[in-house]
Write a structure and sequence with these properties.
Elements lengths: L1 H7 L2 H25 L6 E6 L4 H16 L3 E6 L31 H4 L4 H15 L5 H11 L2 E4 L1 H7 L16 H9 L3 E4 L1
Parallel strand pairs: 1-2, 1-4, 2-3
């Protein structure tokens, strides 16, 4: 039947119909793209802990996200803000007390002994270096250079009496929860670490 219809349709008319259909499809597509422009995927992370083992995940995830052509923002609040203080990234500690995933399980009472945190930190940093894993200060540099938004929490700064001059250089301006939530509401991935 299609063959019979083709025989009766004027080729010029068929071409004109195809042209009109293509124009309408193109116009609809352009309107849809204008209404919903493509954007980069976004990662939003709340960084709330300031220990050695807590600093790695958000920094690795954010720098990896940027390498994958995503946007990334880290919101450093409460004890996570410690990571951004001048000189702190180099001296972050690993605290085995109450950490059931510590590689060498030991009773909590032993972890509570004086010097155990220092020993555990030394051992962890030695392992990190022997595995040629970049340090936290190097990850912070990479994050700043690659455009990761490093947001100090203004409320935490006020609460803890931390001034902007006490934080490392190259950070985004301090923000509040509303700014982070506005970003996170549009993020594809949101994490709390």
């Amino acid at each position: 039947m299609e063959q019979k219809l083709k025989e009766h349709i004027d080729p010029a008319l068929e071409e004109r119909l195809r042209s009109l259909i293509d124009e309408r499809i193109d116009a609809k597509l352009a309107a849809r793209i204008e209404k919903h422009p493509s954007r980069k995927k976004k990662l939003a992370v709340i960084v709330s802990k300031g220990t050695l083992e807590a600093a790695y995940p958000p920094l690795i995830l954010a720098t990896t996200a940027v390498a994958l052509d995503m946007e990334a923002a880290l919101f450093f609040t409460f004890f996570g803000l410690h990571i951004l203080k001048k000189g702190s990234a180099e001296s972050l500690r690993f605290v085995p007390l109450g950490n059931p995933a510590t590689p060498m399980p030991m009773p909590n009472i032993i972890s509570a002994l004086p010097g155990m945190t220092a020993l555990a930190t030394l051992m962890m940093k030695k392992t990190i270096a022997s595995k040629q894993i970049v340090s936290v200060p190097e990850l912070l540099d990479l994050a700043r250079e690659s455009g990761v938004k490093l947001w100090p929490c203004q409320m935490t700064m006020d609460m803890m009496g931390i001034e902007r001059k006490e934080l490392i250089e190259g950070l985004s301006d301090p923000v509040g929860a509303a700014t982070f939530l506005s970003y996170a509401a549009d993020a594809d991935i949101t994490l709390f670490i």
